Amino acid sequence: MNDGQLRDLCNRFFDAVESHDLETLAAIYSDDLQFWANVTGTAKTKEENLQILRDGKAVHRRRTYDDRQIRTFETGFLAQYSCNIVQLDGRKRSLSSCLIAQCKDGQITRIDEYLDSSRFSDASRRPAAK
Amino acid sequence: MTRMTDSEIRVLANRFFDAYQDRRPDELKDIYCDETIIWTNVFQKEMSGEDNRSALPASYAKARRRTYDDRTINTFDEGFVIQYTLTGVHHTGHKGALQVCIVALCRNNKIVRIDEYMDTSKFRDWRGPNFHEDG
C-alpha cells in the first residue's frame, strides 16, 4: 500500500470509530485482526474489539479523535492523536494517545495502542450521586 | 540537509536506547541537538533534551538495572516509532516490565523531538513492593 492509501485507511478507521460505524470497521479490519493495547497487555480479535465498541457506546456522550498526526511506513501507519471525550455529565476530558497499525491489501491486520489508562479511568468516571 | 536513510535512522534509534541502557548521558549529548524537545503523555508537557540528560543520574539511582528490550522499530520519512519493553531490576530485586512506545523525529543524525507514551497505572506493578524513591 502507498502513502496515500495508508493515510486514507487511517482516517477511515478513526472516522468509523468516532461515528460508531461498526459496519465500516468490520470491513477495514482483516478477519485475523489482532488489537493489542498497553492497558491490558493482551490482544483482542476482530469480533472481540467490535463487541467492546458496541458495549462502549453508552459510556460517553461523544468521543472525537482529533489532532491526528499520521505518518506512514512500509507496512502501515503511526497515528498520534487526542481522544476528546464528552462525559454523560457534560464534562470534557482529553487523552493523548498513539497507535501503530500494520496494514495489508487495504485492511488493518494489527493495531498496537498506547495510552495512559489512569487518565482514561478519570474520563470514564460517571457523575457522583448527589 | 540530507534525508536520513532507513538504516541511518535505525542505527540512531539503537544508539539512543543503548546509551540510555548503558547509563551514558555523554552519548546522549551527541544524539540530542540544542533544540531537542521531549514530551511524555505522563506529564503532558515538554522538556529540553538538556533537562532530560540532567535528570538521568537521579533516575538511574532508582533501579539496579534497566534494559530496553524487544525493540520493534518502524521508520518513516522524518524519524522512527519504536515499541519496546522497559525491564527494570529494582534495588529490592523485584523485576518489572513496562510496555512503552516512543515517536522520534530525526534530522542530521540527531533526535530533535521525542514523544513518549506509557501507562502510569502500571507503575506500581513495575516497581513492585517495598519500592523507595531513594533506592
Furnish the topology, listing elements before pairings.
The complex is a heterodimer of chains A (130) and B (135).
Chain A (H helix, E strand, L loop, with lengths): L2 H16 L3 H7 E9 L5 E2 L1 H11 L5 E12 L2 E11 L5 E13 L2 E8 L2 H8 L6
Parallel strand pairs in A: 1-6
Antiparallel strand pairs in A: 1-2, 3-4, 4-5, 5-6
Chain B lengths: L5 H16 L3 H7 E9 L4 E4 H12 L2 E14 L2 E12 L4 E13 L2 E8 L5 H5 L8
Parallel strand pairs in B: 1-6
Antiparallel strand pairs in B: 1-2, 3-4, 4-5, 5-6
Helix pairs in contact in B: 1-2
User: In this structure, how is the largest beta sheet of chain A organized?
Assistant: 6 strands, mixed
What is the residue-averaged pLDDT of chain B? 91
**Radius of gyration of chain B, taken over Cα atoms and rounded to an integer in Å:** 15 Å
| Number of helical regions of chain B | 4
Low-confidence stretches of chain B: none
Strand order of the largest sheet of chain A: 2-1-6-5-4-3
What is the CATH architecture term of chain A?
Roll
Quick one: overall form of chain B?
globular
- CA radius of gyration of chain A is 15 Å
Quick one: biggest sheet of chain B? 6 strands, mixed
Average of per-residue pLDDT values of chain A: 90
**Structure classification of chain A:** alpha+beta
Beta fraction of the residues of chain B? Answer: 35-45%
Low-confidence stretches of chain A: 123-130
Q: Structural class of the secondary elements of chain B?
A: alpha+beta
- SS field, number of helical segments of chain A: 4
Highlighted features:
A: 130 residues, alpha+beta, Nuclear Transport Factor 2, Chain: A, six-stranded mixed beta sheet, 4 helices, disordered C terminus, B: 135 residues, globular
